[in-house]
Amino acid sequence: YGGRVTDAWDRRLVNTYLDTWYCDEAINTENFKLSSLATYYIPDDGPLQSYKDYIAQLPNFDAPEAFGQHGNADIASQIEDTVELLESILMMQPRVAGGGGATREELVDDMAKGLLEQVPAPLDLDAIIKAKMDDQSALHVVLFQEIERYNIMLGGVRRQLADLRKAVKGTVVMTAELEDVFICMFDGRIPASWLKGYPSLKPLAAWAADLVERVRQCSEWAEGTYPVIYNMGYFTFPTGFLTAVLQTSARKNSVSIDVLSWEFVVNTQDPKEITQYPKEGVYVGGMFLEGAGWDPELCCLQEPNPMELTLLMPVIQFKPTENKKKTGKGIYPCPVYYYPVRTGSRERPSYMITVDLKSGKAEADHWIKRGTALQLSLMT
């Protein structure tokens, strides 16, 4: 079990378990319940054999409820194991086409042709900077930086696709890098060289469609004015965007950025009905809630429905504020992650920010055990 507690969120979970089990009630209450399941409790004091008998009747496989999780956690775990198994089987498949039909080269060439038509061309950054010269805000600096990163990525992807088509036809040499792209495309996976801009667990087709939407947000912002609702998951570095929002508010109110913190207001309107900018801060949409359900009437967390692993959250106003009060009872500090791998990597952490959500009928500890979090992108 070494190395399981790797960050502050793991520590928060461990402390929650300790607070639940190491308490006065565990000693003073007869057969103190250790979970919502009747199987798990502190047995009566007795001889050694009585404890052995109790342990023997425990199930061989613990249900998620034993640890305070929802039954959906078991489904999510099984889906993850299945995906890993199928990917392993796919990797072991022979790389030689057999029987009739199109060859691997023809299939990959058609995919490369389709992706070249789908993936946008790089944006004209110089023209965009010139058009935005009258409004040199911190948010526009973020826009320029995002476009610059996406242009590098788009240029590299389109160049590799064009070279791959030539290599398949034999007009250029099939390098090791192009061969890796070829194999990944045939398997429906994202080539590693295409993930330098931002991490993603999506399959190739879903990734390409998502990339189009990401570039569209930048393009529409560049051609028009500030978006009314930002999709924070479409930024390659959302933390830079959040810092720019704080800087904008600090300049507007003539205060130091150091005294500002975040207040979060969940909007009850349909995103299509939101047409005006908030008086302070920004509207953020496109986030997905994992490990809980959402009550739209009471604007709070609730138990999810069976098989409801994730759901699209309503638009949330990220509002910079001074002298914010400490988080009180009835509030769950919900971590926001860039993509489903919550640990991220050393170079690119997945954790972005903590959003305060109303915990509903349950206390915050209940959602901590559930691993409730917001995701900016999913696996599909």
UniProtKB/TrEMBL annotation:
<dbReference type="GO" id="GO:0007018">
    <property type="term" value="P:microtubule-based movement"/>
</dbReference>
<dbReference type="InterPro" id="IPR041658">
    <property type="entry name" value="AAA_lid_11"/>
</dbReference>
<dbReference type="GO" id="GO:0030286">
    <property type="term" value="C:dynein complex"/>
</dbReference>
<dbReference type="GO" id="GO:0051959">
    <property type="term" value="F:dynein light intermediate chain binding"/>
</dbReference>
<dbReference type="InterPro" id="IPR041228">
    <property type="entry name" value="Dynein_C"/>
</dbReference>
<dbReference type="Pfam" id="PF18199">
    <property type="entry name" value="Dynein_C"/>
</dbReference>
<dbReference type="Pfam" id="PF18198">
    <property type="entry name" value="AAA_lid_11"/>
</dbReference>
<dbReference type="GO" id="GO:0045505">
    <property type="term" value="F:dynein intermediate chain binding"/>
</dbReference>
<dbReference type="InterPro" id="IPR042219">
    <property type="entry name" value="AAA_lid_11_sf"/>
</dbReference>
<dbReference type="InterPro" id="IPR026983">
    <property type="entry name" value="DHC"/>
</dbReference>
<feature type="domain" description="Dynein heavy chain AAA lid">
    <location>
        <begin position="1"/>
        <end position="73"/>
    </location>
</feature>
<protein>
    <recommendedName>
        <fullName>Dynein heavy chain C-terminal domain-containing protein</fullName>
    </recommendedName>
</protein>
<dbReference type="InterPro" id="IPR043160">
    <property type="entry name" value="Dynein_C_barrel"/>
</dbReference>
<feature type="domain" description="Dynein heavy chain C-terminal">
    <location>
        <begin position="81"/>
        <end position="374"/>
    </location>
</feature>
